[in-house]
Amino acid sequence: MSRIFSIATRSILPRSYRPVASQLSKYSLAGHGKIFYSTAGTENNDYKEIIVEYKGKRQNVALVRLHRPKALNALCASLIAELTHALASFDKNPDIGCIVLTGSEKAFAAGADIKEMQNLTYDYTYKSDFLANWEFVHRTKTPIIAAINGYALGGGCEIAMSCDILYAGDNAKFGQPEISIGTIPGGGGSQRLTKAVGKSLAMEMILTGKPIDAQEAERKGLVSKVFPKEVLVDEAIKTAEVIANQSKMAARMCKQAVQTSFNVGLDEGLKYERTIFHSTFAVHDRKEGMTAFVEKRKPNYEDK
Ligand SMILES: CCCCCCC/C=C/C(=O)SCCNC(=O)CCNC(=O)[C@H](O)C(C)(C)COP(=O)(O)OP(=O)(O)OC[C@H]1O[C@@H](n2cnc3c(N)ncnc32)[C@H](O)[C@@H]1OP(=O)(O)O
């Protein structure tokens, strides 16, 4: 895999970026959908910039903490490589039904790593389609809850918005401050923020760089709930457990149907939903769920 990486990417990296390239190759990173992951397990304790734990009575919730405390969880290439690897491995793990993604109490993530980007060139970003691989959160099939305390800025806000459910701690701050460093949102901020909070507030945030707090984020529909910061992660895990105990196939299909509503018009979306709905009649878990209801017992899902 590192060979593929070196052929495809390393040759066009500017010299200052090459050490990062070698870290990426460790996790066989080349983009969700395009990569061939070398490991499918979740036993990987080798991560340096994320911490993975398993939660819930059935240990079917994966809790991922971004962990670069000295840099307020700034999203460097090696952290992204680890996160990509972890999320892909959860998708392949039949025991995991939901993921909670969080940071520290001070920062979910203060954005993409500015120190890493400082000396990048147009030549490099264009030829390597820089950031194209960072869509992995959105591409993950397992539902993801973002539990956001503290700063969610720039790429941090974009990663949070790529998740399926957003819960905020009462100290959270959401912003797209890229304009104040001479650039624009590059990880979907101009699109997802606008869809979430509407044009005027998105423009205000993106054009001024000023963040909004958790309460405003809840009022404007960017997050669905706000909790005291100390209990945020536990609350997210509780919801994640409810999701993880459903049929995993049904949960993935629900996610796919809702995601589609962002990309297509109503008629197309309704057609797509009905097609997926019909397909549940080919799934064991649909029969089991309905039978369990009729027989007044708990369903026994088999993820098939
Ligand atoms: C879906 C995938 C995502 C795709 C990403 C697409 C492109 C994204 C672009 C961006 O995200 S650009 C970056 C946007 N973020 C920012 O501009 C925020 C920058 N940080 C700050 O303004 C401040 O750090 C803060 C968050 C307001 C906190 O201020 P405070 O005074 O409390 O702490 P500091 O002393 O400033 O920071 C501590 C430590 O952390 C380092 N750091 C903080 N943010 C970053 C960052 N984004 N990149 C690199 N390093 C960061 C900061 O430099 C300090 O470290 P030292 O310099 O002291 O070693």
From TrEMBL:
Keyword list, A-Z: Fatty acid metabolism, Lipid metabolism, Lyase
GO molecular function: enoyl-CoA hydratase activity
Enzyme Commission numbers on file: 4.2.1.17
Highest taxon of the lineage: Eukaryota
GO cellular component: mitochondrion
InterPro entries the record matches: ClpP/crotonase-like_dom_sf, Enoyl-CoA_hyd/isom_CS, Enoyl-CoA_hydra/iso, Enoyl-CoA_hydra_C
Xref: Gene3D superfamilies: 2-enoyl-CoA Hydratase, Chain A, domain 1, Lyase 2-enoyl-coa Hydratase, Chain A, domain 2
CDD domains: crotonase-like
Group of enzyme by EC: lyase
Biological-process GO terms, alphabetical: fatty acid beta-oxidation
Family under the similarity heading: Belongs to the enoyl-CoA hydratase/isomerase family.
Designated name of the protein: Probable enoyl-CoA hydratase, mitochondrial
Protein source organism: Trichoplax adhaerens (Trichoplax reptans)
